[in-house]
Every structure is written in structure tokens, then in C-alpha cells.
Amino acid sequence: MSERTTAAVPPAAPELTGTGDLGLFGPGSVTWRVHSEPVLWVAGVRSLFLQALHPRAIAGVVQNSSYKVEPWSRLLRTADYVGTVIFGTTQQAAAAGRRIRGIHARMRGVDPRSGETFRIDEPELLRWVHVTEVESFVSTARRAGLELTDADVDGYYTEQRRAAELVGLDPSTVPGTRAEVAAYYRRLRPQLALTREALDTLFFLMAPPLPWHLGLTPARLVYTGLAATAFALQPGWARRVYGTLGLPTTDLSASVSVRGLRLATRLLPERFQHGPIYRDAMARVAARSAES
């Protein structure tokens, strides 16, 4: 696949003000349908497993972050960023994008294979992180039982070009359909490898220090099971890079597990399913409906 994709770039959402500002996507978007699913935090872990297979990308993370020291605060910051882009107002999303671009612009890494110094905000690296994230979100939602047609998935990828633009990517160079995402993965697969940093990340994600002194409680077993589900939700080719089997039976068990997890999360009280950014978005929708 060439870097310039063929799907149309969606027009930017109108920048509204006050209660009328429903952000970059809005209640009629596939994006809101997908990201209304609380089970998507599993997709976030899945995307981290995938991202670690890109030697340059994982080197940049290891060399520029303290994720092992403060993994949960980092996870919460990432979740807050994604939530702001998806459900925040237009201005909030734009401000979040400016902050992340400013952070990335100051960072450099050293390629462990060539010794070359590189920028963290290289388009190739930003595109890899973006594609693995959005593909993880929509694939996990679908396997968890959210009813999405192939056209819906294409629409989601096309909508997510707006999020890609926020981090500094040219939307026309970002895969915008299922076919383009599949072609992108095929093109990148020869570059992926199980490096020492990737293997270290795998072990860490499977057994990170848990907050609130939960490490010696049943929460450890629960987390390990959920992390194993996130790992198994990866494409078979990715699991094979990690040295594990990419069998259909693994895919089936992962789908069953994530469907059960989705059903369980939907039984939780609303305050545990969605955060304040989502609730603020729903309040703006309700206020706009009341005004019309």
C-alpha cells in the first residue's frame, strides 16, 4: 500500500460553542458507538502488545518514559487523552492534541540497531501507534459483541483520521478502511521483531505492580487473566512474532472471554462504566436536545 490512501478524509466536525459543541465526532458517529463500550480498556492493553513489536517505536518509549515506575498514572493519562479526543469538546480535543504534539516534539530516541538518533514524532512512528490503537479498539469492540457492519468499521477508521491529525499526521497518509489497515499491517510486518525491549514489555504488561496494595490479593489473578485475554486478542501473526501459537482456537477463546467481560462490565453501576469526560458529553447532548 502506498502512503497515500484512497478513502476520503471526513470533513472536520463543525466547531461549535457552549452546549452545542459535541466535539470531533458526535452521537451519530461510529466512534461514539465504539468508545461507549467500557470493555475497551482491554483494547488499550492489546494495542500496547502490538506497539511493542516495532523496534524503533518501543525503543522510543523505553528511552523516554518511566512507565515501569508509574504505569497506572501513565495509563490514566493516556485514557484521559483518548477520552478527551473522543468525547471532549472541539476546543478540548484541539488543546489535548497541542499538548501531545509539544511533548513529542521535544523527545528523541536512539535506534538500538543502527545507533541513529530519531524523533519520537516521526510520521512512521505516529502512524504505527495510531493504527494499532484504533484497530485494537474497533476489533475488540466487535469481538466483544458490539454489532458493527464492515461499512461501520470502515467508517470508524475514516473518522479516526481526525484523531490522527491531532497528533501531527497528514490524514491522507493514514489508513482509512479495513482494507487499508490490513495492507498497512502487511507492509509493516517485515519490520516487526521480538526485541529485548518488546519481550521486557510483554513480561511487564502481564505482571505490573498493582496499585492500592492489591498485588497479593485475588486482583492479581484477575488482572493476569485480563492481560492474557488482551494478548490473545492480537492477530495470529502478532502472536507468532512473540513466539506463541496463532491458532483459531486461541482466537475463539479470546472472543468468548472478551464477550463475557463485556457482559460483566455492563452490570456495573454507571459511575464505574464511564468517566467524567463521557458523562459531560452526554450532558451536552441532552442540553442540545432540550434546546431544539
UniProtKB/TrEMBL annotation:
Domain of life of the organism encoding this protein: Bacteria
Annotated ER-bound oxygenase mpaB/mpaB'/Rubber oxygenase catalytic domain residues: 32-261
Alphabetized GO MF terms: oxidoreductase activity
InterPro entries reported for this sequence: MPAB/Lcp_cat_dom
Pfam families the record matches: MPAB_Lcp_cat
PANTHER family, per database record: BLR2777 PROTEIN, ER-BOUND OXYGENASE MPAB_MPAB'_RUBBER OXYGENASE CATALYTIC DOMAIN-CONTAINING PROTEIN
Protein name according to UniProt: ER-bound oxygenase mpaB/mpaB'/Rubber oxygenase catalytic domain-containing protein
Species annotation: Catellatospora bangladeshensis
